[in-house]
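Class prep. Protein, please:
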Amino acid sequence: MNDTGPASRITLGFQAAGLVNVAGVLLFSKAFTNDALIARSPVVFSRFGLVCIILWGLAHLAVARRYQQVPLLVAVFAVEKFVYTGTWFSWMLRFGSELPRLYSESPLAAAFYTIYGPNDLLFGIFFAVVAMREMGRSPS
């Protein structure tokens, strides 16, 4: 396979999504100890929820070089990202006005809540495009 072709760039996209989930959770949650992050959305970002996000990241990494073989799973990744984008929109509508105070209290938690929605939206679009592309190539 060509190292600079479209397939390689798509593989890099999967790897980026996986690393953002794994490293991002560990960084922004301060290895699951950032109570300010957890307290702002305890259902979605409990310690258990954060572990689940890492598991999604590991799944993205696991299929990075085999995404062509699992287009329906890639579609599930897109749905997962859009669900998290929806939780972000909901959170921003309810609590977005608290971000300035959160930045002074816990800059990492505030940065996380600022960027996770747009990040998930972009990766959701990426996964949706890849899924549609690969489903279009798959024999019926």
Summary: The first helix runs from residue 6 to 28.
